[in-house]
Amino acid sequence: MGIDFQGRVAIVTGAGGGLGRQHALALAQRGAKVLVNDLGGAVDGSGGTVTAAQAVVDEIRAAGGEALANGASVTDFAAVEAMVQQAIDAWGRVDILVNNAGILRDKSFAKMDMADFRLVVDVHLMGAANCCKAVWPHMVAQQYGRIVMTTSSTGLYGNFGQANYGAAKLAQVGLMQTLAIEGAKYNIHVNALAPTAATRMTEGLMPQEVLDALKPEAVVPAMLVLAHESAPSRTILCAGAGTFEAAHITLTQGIHLGIGADVPEQLAARLAEVTERAGDQVPQSGAAQGTNEVGRALAARA
After folding, report:
1. Is the dihedral of CA 74, 177, 163, 212 positive or negative?
2. Alpha-helix runs per DSSP H in 69-219
3. Are 44 and 120 in contact (CB under 8 A)?
4. What is the full DSSP assignment across 207-262?
5. Residue in 144, 157, 165, 186 annotated catalytic
6. Would 191 disulfide with which of 15, 76, 118, 226, CB 3.0-4.6 Å?
7. Closest CA to 36 of 44, 45, 27
8. Which of 101, 76, 75 is nearest to 11 (CA)?
9. Integer CA distances (angstroms), 35 to 10, 15, 70, 165, in order
10. Catalytic (active site) residue 144
11. Coil, strand, or helix at residue 7?
């Protein structure tokens, strides 16, 4: 196989079922040793048992692979640190982290309890941050790492009834952008995957014909590419039903209006020019915005 993971150690969170299970099985099939993490709770995050993770471990071992089960909640940093240490103790390193754990507490924002908003953010965003923080020193020390965030079209583009989920998922992209910059000198590549897949979370939300097309395993190739040693960095791959796309956060060329009492009126009148996509860029860092703005201001003075 061209994309193989022989000698690599991977941690996949939320891997007791659905997409995470497919990720874990695929990595193991291609040679990785896999720590299968899953809290074993319900879709809304309640409950917990290591049974689901152990079942995936049993599948991997039955196929001749190496795997360990872990039932830590990604919201518990001490438990996450212990999870990473479990992999280190067993296999001596951690090369790959796939942040896949997540829950749903869907409601329109008007009806949403803020406790449900916070919990979804805690699991998706803080859970990913906790896992990244726990593997980071090991990846720095070994001068190698591949981290895959699981974002969502809801985070990138919005979706009714999922303000909490969307906020958390786009926040993962922000985390990815900075970690990729900070990790570059250590050969740590960080990317994001936006999957469309039929899982426990999507049951009842789509017609059966659509669900049949959105098999979780159809997303896995994108994860394998982002987790491999040849992976890019700071890439947002979208995947579903065997189709693959890329999403970009871009910056338009904009216009310089300067400072003055009538600038609000000028901006309103010329807003179409500001939002014009021709010549837009994918910034290499947040500094690109300020560079563009100051550059245009200085040019206007010349």
Report:
1. negative
2. 77-91, 114-121, 127-142, 153-157, 163-183, 208-213
3. no
4. -HHHHHH--GGGTHHHHHHHHSTT--SS-EEEEETTEEEEE---B-------S-TT
5. 165
6. 226
7. 27
8. 101
9. 6, 9, 7, 26
10. no
11. coil
